[in-house]
Automatic annotation (TrEMBL):
Cellular component, GO, one term: plasma membrane
Key words of the record: Cell membrane, Disulfide bond, Glycoprotein, Glycosidase, GPI-anchor, Hydrolase, Lipoprotein, Membrane, Plant defense, Signal, Transmembrane, Transmembrane helix
An annotated Gene Ontology molecular function: glucan endo-1,3-beta-D-glucosidase activity
Name of the protein described by the UniProt record: glucan endo-1,3-beta-D-glucosidase
Keyword hit for Flavoprotein: no
Gene Ontology process terms (BP): carbohydrate metabolic process; defense response
Reaction equation(s) it catalyzes: Hydrolysis of (1->3)-beta-D-glucosidic linkages in (1->3)-beta-D-glucans
Family from the record: Belongs to the glycosyl hydrolase 17 family.
Length: 483
């Protein structure tokens, strides 16, 4: 009896564990962008994804090296076509066919294959700030890509979709039930969602509570998170206690009105940045993710779409050469730092446990050297132009009001800028000149919460090494054949 009892307890425990694993295994994805001066080597990234149980990844292009690195990993992949390529796909079905052959079907065979599930056609191509530049080519490109997938015999499993910003729909009253697609693109959106529906492809939407707060000083802060007291009431006694759900269900209403009420929705991007703005910090990011991950693990869904939600967190790493047009926070969306270290505790199982994600393994750092403003420099008015120069060619988005290095004095700010430029240029001695005002030091120049980083060896540079090793292996192979 005692034994049997023990066994029952054990199996109940493992059933719970299995269910928890299955839940997050089913859903959690991340965006993997590579707009970094020193990107991590793809093999290190794939190991990181596996170590953290991440099962899905969304890319922004179809870079052969990156996609190949996912072969045999069991990770589901969305490859993508950048906006500036859309015209080619719209104008030529043959181009779409060639692209699918080289960037999709080829990978399905290599090394046990890459598990490609989606092709993202463009990236937020209807963003109002693009002034309509991509309105014409996007839908024809979508059709050509899906047709090419179908003709290659993979259209049942691999779907073309358009990752869209939530600004493609709106609600005049701010309640979801008044939602509809944006006036200037409504007819186009109707055609697109019907096409997606006919092809059993998902609607991919990027939802950013952070931007609600950033763009509107009067936005109630607690509504951006998942545990706040602020609620809004919609028709039919539907209540919303967070803007993520309200935003998502504004889309659900828009789809209902378009006659495709059951179109699958995939959340292509959601996250919170940690620097570059007063609301972008580790504390608020952790609060946001704690709420989001709990909600996702419980398969709570939204009032209009309860249940599982396919979701891709934004983003995997900080990327120091992204455009800062949206704001300085744009380079700080990573759940990991530039070097693959986790920034704060995060529990993908949604149980709110205080544990760190597994860090990237095998990352090679440059030497422990920093470039700072020489303490002999007394004339600060000569320093300004050097700081501007350093910042214009590196990344100073952690400087400024409310940021991690915003409290530095003038001399330390100059040192910060000098160091960023120095690290960006792989610590070359010439990159610490600054008209004789720069000085290389070996004592950690970081100040309080302001990190003066040491760059890593770029994974992209190691490609050169990688191919040399491949050549050597190839030569060895031919020797063996000769013997
Ligand atoms: C495949 O994708 C890569 C990276 O996005 C691109 O450079 C290349 O031109 C594509 N191949 C074809 C045949 O279009
Ligand atoms: C869109 O138009 C605005 C105002 O006319 C302009 O400042 C901006 O550069 C344009 N953006 C693009 C991507 O063309
Ligand atoms: C209102 O709620 C009822 C009961 O839950 C449901 O059957 C009905 O479809 C809802 N109406 C709308 C417009 O959502
Ligand atoms: C300080 O630097 C400025 C700008 O380079 C220069 O015009 C000025 O003469 C310098 N002042 C002194 C005291 O050297
Ligand atoms: C420098 O100091 C900062 C803050 O104390 C620390 O986080 C960082 O790891 C140090 N860097 C190195 C290379 O030791």
């Amino acid at each position: 009896m005692a034994r049997a009892g023990g066994f029952l307890v054990v199996s109940a425990v493992s059933a719970v564990v299995i269910m928890v694993l299955a839940n997050h295994a089913q859903g959690l994805g991340v965006n993997w962008g590579t707009m970094a001066s020193h990107p991590l080597h793809p093999s290190i990234v794939v190991k990181l994804l596996k170590d953290n149980g991440i099962k899905k990844v969304k890319l922004f292009d179809a870079d052969d090296w990156t996609v190949s690195s996912l072969a045999g990993s069991g990770i589901e992949v969305m490859v993508a076509i950048p906006n500036d390529q859309l015209n080619k796909f719209a104008n030529s079905y043959n181009h779409a066919k060639d692209w699918v052959k080289e960037n999709v079907t080829k990978h399905l065979r290599d090394n046990g294959g890459v598990d490609i599930r989606y092709v993202g056609v463009g990236n937020e191509p209807f963003l109002a700030s693009y002034n309509g530049s991509f309105i014409k080519p996007t839908f024809p490109a979508l059709k050509n890509v899906q047709k090419a997938l179908n003709e290659a015999g993979v259209g049942d499993k691999i779907k073309a979709t358009i990752p869209l910003n939530a600004d493609v729909y709106e609600s005049s009253s701010n309640t979801p039930s008044d939602g509809n697609f944006r006036n200037d693109i409504r007819d186009l959106m109707l055609q697109i969602v019907r096409f997606l529906n006919d092809n059993k492809s998902p609607f991919t939407v990027n939802i950013y509570p952070f931007l609600s707060l950033y763009e509107n000083a009067n936005f109630p802060q607690e509504f951006a998170f998942f545990d706040g007291s602020k609620t809004i009431n919609d028709k039919n006694n539907t209540r919303y206690d967070n803007v993520f759900d309200a935003n998502h269900d504004t889309l659900v209403w828009s789809l209902k009105k378009a006659g495709v009420p059951d179109l699958k929705i995939l959340v292509g991007e959601v996250g919170w940045p940690t620097d570059g703005n007063k609301n972008a910090n580790v504390g608020l990011a952790k609060k946001f993710y704690d709420g989001l991950l709990k909600k996702l693990a419980k398969n709570k869904g939204t009032p209009l779409r309860p249940g599982h939600m396919e979701t891709y967190l934004f983003s995997l790493f900080d990327e120091d050469i992204k455009s800062v047009a949206p704001g300085h926070f744009e380079r700080h969306w990573g759940i990991f730092r530039y070097d693959g270290l986790p920034k704060f505790s995060m529990d993908f199982t949604g149980q709110g446990q205080d544990k760190m994600l597994v860090a990237a393994k095998g990352v090679q750092y440059l030497e422990k050297k920093w470039c700072v403003l020489d303490s002999d420099v007394k004339n600060m008015s000569a320093v300004g132009p050097e700081v501007n120069y350093a910042c214009s060619l590196s990344d100073c988005t952690s400087l400024g009001p409310g940021t991690s290095c915003g409290e530095l004095g003038d001399r330390e700010t100059a040192s910060y800028a000098f160091n960023m430029y120095f690290q960006m240029n792989d610590q070359s001695v010439e990159a610490c000149g600054f008209s004789g005002m720069g000085k290389i030091v070996t004592q950690n120049a970081s100040r309080g919460n302001c990190l003066f980083p040491i760059q890593i060896e770029s994974g992209a540079e190691r490609l050169g090494l990688g191919s040399a090793v491949m050549v050597a292996a190839g030569a060895l192979l031919s020797l063996l054949v000769l013997m």
